[in-house]
């Protein structure tokens, strides 16, 4: 049964392979296997437009909508699980989205593929909150991840986060603050505020149950 599922997934990945630029292997732990090493994003997208990263894109509803709404921006979306990311990859290919590509890997495996100051924005949409203290290091706003984002963002570039989990939001505010980040915008109820917003799958499911917390933050200039 598992073999059949794996073969089925392999076929789907191969059919949409041109949309996956990092870590296409189906083994969830084999994430360093890109035939490319450092990604030339201008070559990947065929232009020099700004590039934004989404970490943990899930099934890709939000990133596909963003790519359609902002054709002058390029998007790279990473998600560690192949069975989760594949519907988004297939949708992007079906809709012929030339400004969207995917990485099927944990974001922690991206450093060998991404040069410094590659991104204008990094989006964290409903990242897994990992509520227990023993899993703190896996939270995508843990200091080790913030250090990566700092390297990857352009001067003044933003981390943009939304979550329905108040504890995780408070944790993120504290972690970003300790990393020296400056907050540009905070909302304790995104859907009630006049902030442009496209929804993700998770957001559509959980927004009816309570407020969505939102922040935009940047690292201060190094000069
Ligand atoms: C709760 S889901 C949200 C999915 C989507 N962003 C949404 O809003 O519908 C969080 C996703 O992040 C992915 N994820 C968690 N840690 C990750 C990491 N270190 N690198 C890449 N993806 C990760 C999980 O596999 C999961 O699909």
User: What is the averaged pLDDT score?
Assistant: 92
CATH superfamily of the largest domain: Vaccinia Virus protein VP39
Would you list the SSEs in sequence order as H and E? HEHEHEHEEHEHEHE
- Number of helices in the DSSP assignment: 7
Q: What's the oligomerization state? A: single chain
Uncertain regions spanning at least 5 consecutive residues: 26-32
User: How many domain modules?
Assistant: 2
The CATH topology of the largest domain is given as Rossmann fold
Percent strand equals 15-25%
Whole-number radius of gyration?
17 Å
CATH structural class of the largest domain: Alpha Beta
Small molecules in complex: S-adenosylmethionine
Percent of residues in helices comes to 25-40%
- Derived from helix and strand composition plus strand pairing, the structural class reads alpha/beta
Give a written overview of the molecule:
The chain is an alpha/beta fold. The chain folds into two domains: 1-25 and 47-113, Rossmann fold (3-Layer(aba) Sandwich), CATH 3.40.50; 115-223, Rossmann fold, CATH 3.40.50. 31% of the residues lie in helices and 21% in strands. The chain has seven helices and eight strands, in the order H-E-H-E-H-E-H-E-E-H-E-H-E-H-E. Helix 5 (143-152) links the parallel strand 5 (119-125) and strand 6. Helix 1 packs parallel to helix 4.
């Amino acid at each position: 049964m598992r073999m059949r599922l794996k073969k089925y997934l392999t076929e789907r990945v191969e059919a949409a392979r041109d949309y996956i630029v990092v870590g296409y292997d189906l083994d969830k732990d084999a994430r360093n296997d890109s035939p490319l090493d450092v990604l030339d994003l201008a070559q990947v997208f065929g232009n020099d437009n700004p590039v934004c990263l989404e970490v943990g894109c899930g099934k890709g509803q939000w990133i596909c909508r963003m790519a359609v709404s902002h054709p002058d921006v390029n998007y790279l979306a990473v998600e560690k699980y192949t069975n989760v990311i594949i519907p988004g990859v297939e949708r992007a290919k079906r809709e012929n989205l030339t400004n969207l590509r995917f990485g099927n890997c944990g974001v922690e495996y991206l450093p060998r593929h991404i040069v410094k100051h590659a991104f204008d924005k990094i989006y964290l949409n409903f990242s897994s909150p990992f509520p227990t203290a023993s899993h703190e290091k896996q939270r995508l706003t843990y200091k080790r991840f913030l250090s990566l984002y700092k390297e990857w963002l352009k001067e003044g570039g933003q981390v943009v986060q939304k979550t329905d989990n108040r504890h995780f939001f408070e944790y993120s505010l504290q972690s970003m603050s300790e990393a020296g980040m400056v907050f540009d915008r905070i909302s304790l109820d995104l859907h009630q505020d006049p902030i442009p917003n496209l929804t993700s799958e998770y957001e559509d499911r959980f927004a009816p149950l309570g407020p969505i917390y939102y922040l935009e933050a940047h690292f201060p200039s190094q000069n």
